[in-house]
Amino acid sequence: MNIVKPFVITQRILNSNKFLTCFTQVNLYSKNTKTHRKKLPHEAAASDKWVTRNKGQQLVEDKVDKLIAERQVVDPVWLMKEYKTQTFSIEDAINFHKELARPDMLNNIEGFLNVRFLLDMSSKKKNKFMDNFKGNIYYPNFFADGFKKEVVAVCKNPAEIEAARNAGALFAGYEEVLKKFEKGEISDQSYDFLVCTPETFPDVMLLKKKINKDKIPSVKSNTVTENIAEVVSHLHLSKDYETSKTSDEQALLKARIGPLNFETSKLVENLGALAEKVKTHKKYATESFITSCVLYAPPSTEKFKVDISRFTPKVVENIKQKEDEVEEVEAAVQ
User: Fold this and answer.
1) In this structure, how many other beta carbons lie within 10 angstroms of the beta carbon of residue 99?
2) Residues in CB range of 2: below 8 A, 6 or more apart
3) DSSP summary character for residue 224
4) How far is residue 235's CA from residue 220's CA, in Å, rounded to a whole number?
5) Could you tell me which of 167, 120, 143 has the C-alpha nearest to residue 255?
6) What is the CA radius of gyration of the chain?
7) If you write DSSP's letter for every residue of 49-101 in order, what string do you get?
8) Which of 26, 182, 209, 245 is 20 to 30 Å from the Cα of 19, by its Cα?
């Protein structure tokens, strides 16, 4: 086999009196051509991966971390870096934010209180994890934030049509609404949810090519219902939430739970409702789905970690109960 000797191409780029040299090596063969490239300097592995860590330094760092973890806060003011992150009750954290929002402080009493959940996305299998998910929630204590969802309702009964319109539906009706979908007068961008009654569901499915698959009504999502007006009202005033993965095992979920001028009890109730709704996305039993909860209220930079154990114990019990029921059914079938 004839082999052509490799050659080296050297390219120099002048930039601010600094030279960058790139080497590209190409081996040419008579039958197969293989390319081998030497990594550029900026693609090389981080230097700390190649340096052996000083064991003595590691022991000192571990000792410092242990001391910080054991320290207890005894004064009303302390250096955060010298102590472990403090956990507060939900009520205390809300009151802290309300104090900061006073007119003589940040003057942000009409601002919104936000929550950040850290979620455990693990599953029964070590190498399998939950995907990102999103949803919407109708809070027990509604608040206006300038955003409302557009809902289209398909129903036959004149009383249901009128009730759906009064509840905030963008369009409500039967034949006229279906014709709007056929003609393309109702596009996926013009509405957020499509609801219908069981009676009109077959007619809606005939138009599924005209409807985004994520917006097709279903019993599971409670968008095929007899209580059309109630569902329209809840969806119209609902708030969105969505997770963002920080790693395979963990994800963050951020959402608003109400304005700071709400009563503290209402904000706690909304937080509990969100926690319960988020837990429904967990399919596998773990020690805890919501592993951490932080409350914050921009523009304030203060963030308070809170104890939500009152909302989290049920998640494992409920999931285990469902799994036990499934196992009983499977055993009965076998």
Assistant:
1) 10
2) 30
3) B
4) 15
5) 143
6) 29
7) GTSPPPHHHHHHHHHHHHHHHH----SSS--GGGSPPPEE-HHHHHHHHHHHT
8) 26
In the chain, the number of structural domains is 4
Pair 324, 133: CB distance under 8 Å: no
The length of the chain in residues reads 334
Helix 264-279, helix 90-100: angle, nearest 10: 130
Strand, coil or helix: 191: coil
SS (H, E, C) 144-173: CCCCCCCEEEECCCHHHHHHHHHCCCCEEE
Nearest CA to 300 among 120, 173, 114? 114
Q: What are the tokens at 47?
A: 């230097």
Q: Let me know if 173 is exposed, middle or buried by CB neighbors in 10 A (0-12, 13-18, 19+).
A: buried
11 located within any domain: yes
Residues 140, 244 share a domain: yes
Residuewise pLDDT in 10s, the chain (334 residues):
454 444 443 444 444 444 444 434 444 444 444 444 444 555 555 544 445 555 555 555 555 566 666 677 777 776 777 777 888 999 999 999 999 999 999 999 999 999 999 999 988 888 888 999 999 999 999 998 888 899 999 999 999 999 999 999 999 999 999 999 998 899 889 999 999 999 999 999 998 888 988 899 999 889 999 999 999 999 999 999 999 999 988 999 999 999 999 999 999 999 999 999 999 888 776 667 899 999 999 999 999 999 988 887 644 444 445 445 444 434 443 3
CA distances from 323 to 58, 283, 294, 320 (A): 44, 9, 30, 5
Are 232 and 245 found together in one domain? Answer: no
Structure tokens at 247: 């790693």
**Residues 316, 252 within the same domain:** yes
pTM (2 decimals)?
0.69
Give yes or no for a contact between 271 and 258, defined as CB atoms under 8 angstroms apart. Answer: no
